[in-house]
Amino acid sequence: MTNQNRSEKLRTLSPVEAVQTWLDGDFGFDDEPALIAAIRKDSRITRSNDEIIDFMADALMEEKADAQKYLELLAKS
Hints:
The chain is mainly α. The protein has one domain (3-75). Helices cover 62% and strands 0% of the residues. The protein contains five helices and no strands. The protein has helices spanning 3-11, 15-24, 32-39, 49-60, 67-75. It is globular and about 30 Å long.
């Protein structure tokens, strides 16, 4: 799959699917903007792109990462 096709597919994910994809590391170089776009479908998400990236980097360090839990935490400012 080309980068463009992969990015387009990632943008179609639900917010929780996008968080899970991020946690699974199932994305390629420069796909973060597409994942952020999918996460932003949840209208509660008001953090900046950099804050989302930092938050998800911290979430990756957790041993038992639960996508729904992290989406809820991400939605809290």
